Amino acid sequence: MKAPFTSLAGFRAVFDALPQPDAAALEAATVRNGQLTKPKGALGRLEGLAIWYAGWVGDGRPALERPQVAIFAGNHGIAARGVSAFPPEVTVQMVANYRAGGAAVNQLCKVAGASMTVTELDLDRPTLDFTQGPAMTEDELVAALAAGWEAVEDEADLLVVGEMGIGNTTAAAAIAAALFGGSAGEWTGRGSGVEGAALEGKTLVVAQGLERHAEALSDPVEVLRRLGGRELAAMAGAIARARVGRIPVILDGFICSAAAAVLHAIRPGALDHAVAGHVSAEGAHPAVLARLGKEPILELGMRLGEGTGAIVAINILRSAVACLSGMATFAEAGVAEG
Question: Where is the active site (predicted)?
Fold first, then answer.
């Protein structure tokens, strides 16, 4: 679907009238769940996940058949400040690895039965160093949001968004600090593996960015423009597109959650169509999920990004949906209810 906006004002207008889950499907799924051949609540969180999914796809007995994983890659001007354990060239190299099928995300997509798309966002033109000025112009932000929006496949019945971009945990930390308050140190973590003096330098970069743009940080869209990156903006655009199309979303780790938090800040409830796939080992991720009111499905100590934790959670959601839709009711099975 072509993005319905050509300006930041147009993007903001998307949030004026967001669709809600299908009430009839929610009711049908809830009733069916209560009639299945199991004790009430015996499947724990699987039951709630299946009902949530049913409401968003509009089917009280749903199937999960066409999950999409959309990966976005962008480069950051702040990478030149030594905030990552890897050089900026790795972004391009990893995109090639995705296309060749050699990354972890490729293997996990196969297991989850998910299609995978990769969108490169001006990799030869990094965003600006946000300690010196806004990371993106308004036109650049609109283009990145639209790229994310248009990457979502109309036929998808579940969306996971992932990212690649050296320096993007720094941008995510700055966004989280701007949206939720607190010091740079509370939100800045090891990312790709920095520690010691390098971590102190990364924290300083975040603090400088927050100070440089302090006058604009009450506006979440400006937070994204000034402190974010093209791949974070694209993730936000894709998640917004999913909401408009009532496509359920599984959020990935810290970077994805920071991008999604921009939508939550624009309008509380904007992420009702999303669940948290996992809590990552990046130190500030639990705090972001707490602010978003999201309980992670998995906790596996992962911190790769790229959508990997959320992709693993696809299989949990598949299990939930399979039980809701495939189990027999007491009446169908001829089993006496307790």
Answer: 306 (proton acceptor)
Q: Is the pLDDT of residue 272 over 80?
A: yes
Contact 303/280 with Cβ under 8 angstroms?
yes
Please, which contacts does 55-58 make with residues 24 or more away whose CB atoms are closer than 8 Å? 55/21, 55/22, 55/23, 55/25, 55/26, 55/29, 56/21, 56/22, 56/246, 56/247, 56/248, 56/273, 57/22, 57/25, 57/157, 57/246, 57/247, 57/248, 58/21, 58/22, 58/25, 58/246
Percent over 90 (pLDDT), the chain: 92
Q: What gap in Å lies between CA 167 and CA 326, rounded to an integer?
A: 44
Q: What would the mean pLDDT of 138-156 be, rounded to a whole number?
A: 98
Average pLDDT along the chain? 96
The catalytic residues are 306
CA end-to-end span of the chain, whole Å?
A: 49
Given a contact cutoff of 8 angstroms between Cβ atoms, the answer to whether 86 and 164 are in contact is no
Cα–Cα distances in angstroms (integers) from residue 277 to residues 9, 56, 173, 254, 280, in the given order: 31, 17, 19, 11, 9
Determine the average pLDDT of the residues in 143-154: 98
Domains belonging to the chain, first-starting first, are 65-316 (3.40.50.10210)
Instruction: Decide if 54 contacts 145 (C-beta within 8 A).
Output: no
Residues 6+ positions from 299 with CB-CB distance below 8 Å: 278, 279
Residues whose CB falls within 8 Å of the CB of residue 270, separated by 6 or more in sequence, listed in order:
15, 18, 240, 243, 263, 264
Candidates 9, 53, 13, 11; CA nearest to 323 is 53
Note the pLDDT of residue 180. Answer: 98
Tokens read off for 185: 């140190």
Residue 187 has pLDDT above 80, yes or no: yes
Q: Tokens 């004026």, residue?
A: 16
